[in-house]
TrEMBL record:
It holds the Pfam family F-box-like. Gene3D superfamilies: 1.20.1280.50, Ribonuclease Inhibitor (3.80.10.10). The lineage of its organism: Eukaryota, Metazoa, Chordata, Craniata, Vertebrata. This is F-box domain-containing protein. InterPro entries: F-box-like_dom_sf, F-box_dom, LRR_dom_sf. Residues 7-47 form the F-box domain. It comes from the Eukaryota.
Length: 412
């Protein structure tokens, strides 16, 4: 490299390297000591995660590199007690840990050594009975995800989760049946800060109660509503103010493996603060006559949404198909200030697709169903749209990498 290049401010090189992939960063890092120091700066890896496999094979230089970069998120595969001890000694400041197929539940007792840990994901494993004992002391957690659990002791896990009173996000994907109404309500009472909830529903005979998501009001003794439930210890909610009078509540709800008619038409009414609702049906084809939830998007719904949110800047419209009266041609009128739009192009007419150019503030268009790549027809539509917008719109149609730290169930 020319010596003159090193006279550029470090801030310039830093911004350039932020656009590189991890592999490209490694190639640049190996070129000289200057770039080795630059690439290893903690700011370069602030939102990055590291996947740890065959942990005993890592040498001291590898752990030293992770320490210099202040890596705060890791994915751990099949680690035993010795591996967890090594992780806790080398990276004690970890904030987020994802565990895949752990070998020994006793080894997870090491989690208590991570004092800054606030996000924990445990996925794809045969659930041992001792897991609840491991989870209960982790009171500092704000996000926990239990994904694809098998043979899990539900009563023990619910009891442990109910003691994590600081949780703001709970992903509970266990079993093939919904949590009972009383058990769910008693757990929610114990989690006053919870704003995000994701549940795996599954098959059920009949319909769940209308008040499935309704928090019981507690007057006088706050344990009176749930004292009879073995799944929730009384001490976990002792002295708490009446949750029925609180202005807190769920803002995001996700229901996976859903089958109608699980919820009644009025089941969501208690969730007055709900901002985001995701329902992933177990069956791909859903007949409108079988759907109790009144959230199937139609032209009238888009029109109503446009009237309520005329200043909307980001819209993710993931409809599996569009009818003749889809209302997509009205998007520029309904949402004139859109900057980011995500949708499927299947069954969109050329006029509807190219007509998106009328969105004067549109900066990014994400085509959700162009995998593994755009067809010749879609490429032609994109070209026409780019010409109409003078190439000001970024069109994304490549596969977005999955978050290695996230739950498998939610990445549908």
């Amino acid at each position: 490299m020319s010596g003159a290049a090193f006279h550029l401010p470090q801030e310039v090189w830093f911004q350039v390297c932020l656009f590189l992939s991890d592999e490209e960063k490694g190639n640049v890092r190996s070129s000289c000591k200057y770039f080795k120091r630059l690439i290893d700066h903690p700011s370069m890896w602030r939102n990055s995660s590291v996947v740890l496999k065959k942990i005993r094979s890592y040498n001291s230089a590898y752990w030293a590199t992770l320490r210099r970069r202040k890596i705060s998120k890791v994915v751990v595969h099949k680690a035993g007690t010795r591996e967890w001890e090594l992780i806790a000694t080398s990276l004690p400041w970890l904030r987020a840990i994802t565990i895949d197929k752990f070998m020994d539940v006793k080894a997870l007792g090491t989690l208590q050594r991570f004092k800054n840990l606030n996000r924990l994901v445990i996925r794809s494993f045969q659930c041992p009975s001792g897991l609840a004992t491991v989870l209960a002391p982790l009171r500092q957690l704000t996000h926990i995800c239990l994904c694809d659990l098998h043979r899990a002791p539900r009563a023990e896990l619910i009891s442990a989760l109910s003691q994590l009173t600081g949780l703001t996000s709970l992903f509970y994907h266990e079993g093939d049946k919904p949590i009972s109404s009383r058990t769910l309500q008693s757990m929610l009472v114990c989690l006053p800060n919870l704003t995000e909830l994701s549940l795996k529903m599954g098959a059920v005979y009949g319909t769940l109660p209308d008040d499935y998501f309704h928090l019981p009001k507690t007057h006088g003794d706050p344990t009176s509503e749930v004292a009879a439930l073995d799944t929730v210890p009384n001490k976990s909610i002792s002295g708490r103010e009446d949750p029925g009078q609180s202005d807190r509540g769920l803002t995001r709800l996700e229901l996976l493996n859903y089958m109608d008619p699980i919820l009644s038409p009025v089941a969501l009414e208690p969730l007055c603060r709900l901002q985001s609702l995701t329902v992933c049906y177990r069956d791909r084809a859903v007949e409108p006559s079988r759907c109790n939830l009144s959230v199937i998007i139609g032209p009238g719904d888009l029109s109503a949404l446009g009237k309520r949110t005329p200043d909307l800047q980001r819209l993710h419209l993931d409809l599996c198909s569009y009818g003749r009266q889809s209302g997509l041609h009205e998007l520029p009128v309904l949402f004139p200030k859109l900057k980011t739009l995500k949708l499927r192009h299947w069954n969109m007419t050329e006029a509807e697709f190219v007509g998106l150019a009328q969105l004067r503030h549109l900066q990014q268009l994400v085509v959700l169903d162009a995998q593994p790549g755009p067809s010749p027809a879609l490429s032609s539509l994109i070209q026409k749209l780019q010409i109409e917008t003078d190439y000001r719109v970024q069109v994304i149609h490549s596969l977005i990498p999955r978050d290695p730290t996230a739950c498998f169930c939610s990445q549908y």
